[in-house]
Amino acid sequence: MPITVLVVDDQELMRAGLRMVLGAHPDIEVVGEAENGATAITRTAELRPDVVLMDVRMPVTDGVTATARIIESGCGSRVLVMTTFDLDEHALGALRAGASGFLLKDTPPEDLISAIRSVAAGDAVVSPKVTKRLLDRLIAEDPAAGRDPGILDVLTAREREVLEHIAAGRSNAEIAAALFLSEATVKTHVGRVLTKLGLRDRVQAVVLAYETGLVRPGNA
Q: In 3-state terms, what secondary structure has residue 57?
């Protein structure tokens, strides 16, 4: 079965271009479009697409609010946010709301296709290092922003250590080398961290590590 996609953008030309790019791949099917977040919420409920390709800056209802509503609905659709700026606080808001990642709108078509396939398979596609740069800037601007570090008390000392490495954008192989563990053991630790903290993927783990103060700007 093809991966079903809902394209959400307030610019008709952008939607048409995305439909044309995606339509060239037989394993991807664009099942609908939406010109704002409110319509995106409704269309997602109707169509249950595998992936919602979401713009963030839109009239009526923005992409961050729409992402939160879609994730909260439990429909199973995963959201991939597209933004013009790599340091867009709205993109970070979408990640916090449960998006599986974000891409810049000038992303090459082949990277967009790869990202959609990855998200549909349950992976996150945004680089934790890019997320870290977002958080570095936003936390520097508002040091009071954050969450209770007590959330992390459910983790063992080793799991907290693994989370620190995740927040630094390191792969399982890199974490394994740093901690003198096997990749299989690291993968197990990563899975436990996500499960205990109720997180969907590594990107949300990066966000939480910064929001709780486990990692500070410039230290990862």
A: coil
Query: CA-to-CA distance for 80 and 213, rounded, in angstroms?
Result: 26
Phi then psi dihedrals of residue 2, to 5 deg: -70, 160
Within 113-187, strands assigned E span: none
Closest C-alpha to 79, from 119, 48, 113, 33: 119
What is the 8-class DSSP label of residue 27?
T
C-beta of residue 31 within 8 angstroms of C-beta of residue 1? no
| pLDDT score of 95 | 81
Packed helices 12-23 and 109-120: angle between N→C axes, nearest 10 degrees? 80
pLDDT of residue 108 exceeding 70, the answer is yes
Phi-psi domain of 153 (left: phi exceeds 0; alpha: psi -120 through 50; beta: other)? alpha
Closest CA to 90 of 122, 50, 139, 138: 138
Cβ atoms of 37 and 8 within 8 Å: the answer is: yes
Which pLDDT value is given to residue 142?
Answer: 65
Calculate the alpha carbon distances from 8 to 63, 66, 91, 98, 204 in Å.
9, 10, 15, 17, 23
Crossing angle of helices 89-97 and 63-73, rounded to 10°: 10
- In the chain, which ranges are E strands? 3-8, 28-34, 51-55, 78-83, 102-104
Joined together, the tokens standing for residue 173 give: 């192989």
Q: Is 68 left (phi over 0), alpha (psi -120 to 50) or beta?
A: alpha
Rounded to two decimals, the pTM is 0.77
